[in-house]
Design a protein that fits this description.
By secondary structure, the chain is an alpha/beta fold. It is built from four helices and 40 strands.
């Protein structure tokens, strides 16, 4: 279930109603009256959940998940466990996304007060003019929040934090001694889309952002909330201005990222990793503890712990330097005296 501090529960909805609303087909033998309370990925699904499987390799995970219902393409319908009701669709992820909209809705500010009456602020919180704090938000003592910053419903911010002006923080849980500079955007929806019945649709992002103690996020940093899992940043990690962190990404402790780094979704980064400016990381990449990525590198595959990679596509530094050196020498060689020279 998405965190109720950040998402309203709109369910339950019957499986038959979901089928009608999404254009999916209810498989023979499935229970049309089954009440669905939430959408969930396989790792978190239970008997009240609707999940989806688009690839046969995930069927064993479905069998152990205990999911009440699953959306699958026609070719997999006969292989779904007998205790799981089935919806059949050409694009299971689209049905999942549409069902999510029926069952969950992000909480938004209510009322006209800038500071919600049920927000909880400890003594010693310092608010500059124009700050907006949503219902259920909690802020620890000694925290300073700059002018015109918006703190969304349910957000928790620890003690002795510094939040700059014009920042936006939502769907987030933030530890102590965190510094977030001006114009940072924390917790907005990550980029996720799929083909729906009448065109491309957004995939609802139902996760959170977790920022641990001592983290620094520079001016203009954006950290997307998770799509299915949480996005998290480990203790004492320092992130420069204008860095983007995609949804579901896990960043370890004591990492450093220079300006303009772009991290795609579902990346895992170990403790102590370092990134030069303008490095780009493809989605679903794993970067080991203590690894270093050179400036402007394009990382397209996993980097083992402790290694230094650079270039595009990124590769171990020594290999990349050898290639650059060889190309430089080759380019300097005299050309043959052919008629086209």
């Amino acid at each position: 279930m998405p965190d109720i501090r950040f998402y309203e529960d709109l369910g339950p909805v019957s499986l038959a109603d979901i089928a009608v609303a999404t254009g999916a087909e209810l498989a023979v033998g499935s229970d049309p009256a089954l009440m669905i309370h939430k959408v969930a990925v396989l790792a978190h699904a239970d008997s009240q959940s609707l999940t989806f499987v688009a690839d046969k390799k995930y069927l064993p995970d479905l069998e152990t998940s205990g999911a009440g219902a699953c959306v699958v393409p026609l070719r997999l319908a006969s292989e779904v466990p007998a205790n799981c009701s089935v919806l059949i669709a050409k694009n299971p992820q689209a049905v999942y996304a549409l069902a999510a909209l029926m069952l969950h809705r992000p909480r938004r500010h209510s009322g006209t007060a800038c500071i919600s009456s049920d927000a909880r602020l400890e003594d010693g919180v310092d608010l500059a003019p124009g700050v907006v704090i949503g219902q259920g938000a909690q802020i620890g003592r000694g925290t300073q929040i700059g002018a015109n910053t918006v703190i969304g419903p349910g957000v928790t911010i620890g003690r002795n934090c510094r939040i700059g002006s014009n920042a936006s923080i939502s769907f987030a849980m933030i530890g102590d001694r965190v510094m977030i500079y001006a114009n940072a955007v924390i917790g907005e929806a990550g980029f996720g889309a799929t083909l729906g019945p009448s065109g491309i649709i957004d995939i609802p992002q139902l996760g959170r952002v977790i920022i641990q103690d001592g983290v620094t996020l520079g001016a203009g940093v954006t950290v997307d909330r998770g799509a299915y899992e949480d996005t998290s940043i480990g203790e004492n990690t320092k992130i420069d201005n204008l860095v983007h962190i995609g949804h579901n990404t896990k960043i370890g402790r004591n990492c450093v990222m220079a300006a303009f780094v772009g991290v795609s979704g579902s990346v895992t980064i170990g403790d102590g990793a370092r990134f030069g400016g303008r490095a780009g990381i493809a989605d679903h990449i794993s970067i080991g503890d203590g690894a270093q990525v050179g400036g402007a590198a394009g990382v397209l595959k996993d980097i083992p712990a402790g290694e230094i990679w650079s270039g595009y596509p990124a590769q171990p530094l020594r290999k990349w330097l050898r290639e650059v050196n060889w190309l430089s020498k080759a380019a300097a060689l005299p050309r043959s005296g052919g008629k086209n020279d």
